[in-house]
Amino acid sequence: MTQTNGSPSVEVRDATKLYQQGTLEVAALRGLSLTIRPGEFTAICGPSGSGKTTLLNLIGALDAPSSGSIALGGQELGSLGRRALSRLRRDRIGFVFQAYNLIPVLSAYENAEIVLRLQGVEERERRERVLGVLADVGLEGLQDRRPDQLSGGQQQRVAIARAIASNPAVVLADEPTANVDSETADRLLEIMEKLNRERGETFLFSTHDPRVMERARRVIRIVDGRVEDDTASG
């Protein structure tokens, strides 16, 4: 059963992100604040250039705000050094990218296993967890196939399995349905909804896809680097 109380998975406080474009300073985010609780299934939407991907990059510790703060599970990211941030990305954050970002020479099993290997998880436990998450995303029996032997939708399922194998605090999904057809997108969303409902996984999407927004239980709309609307459904 999904839990949405307790301490925040993600807390963004008054985050601003500035970029230099030639002689101009451009604000991608402008004093943005939001809180994501454990077990949420939330979509961040907005027009191109609104700051969606910038926000996910800050939450994922791939970039740092120009001002303000980002906290994950109560840990301020700005207080961490490079190695600690690397460990945090490995251990606390699951990433799902629209381009899948699988390693071509590795099998589905090996791609899903890679974070657990980096964490030093013992082989028997790795195997149990990886086969479990591959079954959860509907890839049972396909664990030995390399990415070029899988469809686009199957590759994205491997990416989802990889993201959840380490039981992260939050899964960040950047346009996860962008490169698949509508039927495959619906199936991927069903899988992620099931993982959210049954495993309590916290999902935060950056998306243009109306199907993602329809299924999300909370939709945050960003315009010009600010939260314009934040709506929760029942």
Q: How many strands, which pairing sense, and closed or not: the largest β-sheet?
A: 6 strands, mixed
**How would the global form be characterised?**
globular
Low-confidence stretches: 1-5
Structural class: alpha/beta
Task: Give the termini distance in whole angstroms.
Answer: 15 Å
Task: For the largest sheet, list the strands in their spatial order.
Answer: 6-7-8-3-9-10
Say how many strands there are: 10
**Helical proportion, percent range:** 25-40%
Number of helices: 7
Helix-strand string: EEEHEEHEHHHEHEHEE
Query: What percentage of amino acids are in beta strands?
Result: 25-35%
Mean pLDDT: 91
Rg of Cα set:
17 Å
What does this protein structure show overall?
This protein is an alpha/beta fold and 234 residues long. It contains seven helices and ten strands. It has helices spanning 52-59, 82-92, 108-119, 123-136, 152-164, 182-199, 210-215; strands at 10-21, 24-36, 41-45, 67-72, 75-76, 93-97, 170-174, 203-206, 218-223, 226-232. The strands form two sheets. The chain has a six-stranded mixed β-sheet, sandwiched between helices. Helix 3 crosses helix 4 (123-136). It is globular, with a radius of gyration of 17 Å. The two termini are 15 Å apart. The model is unreliable at 1-5 (pLDDT under 50).
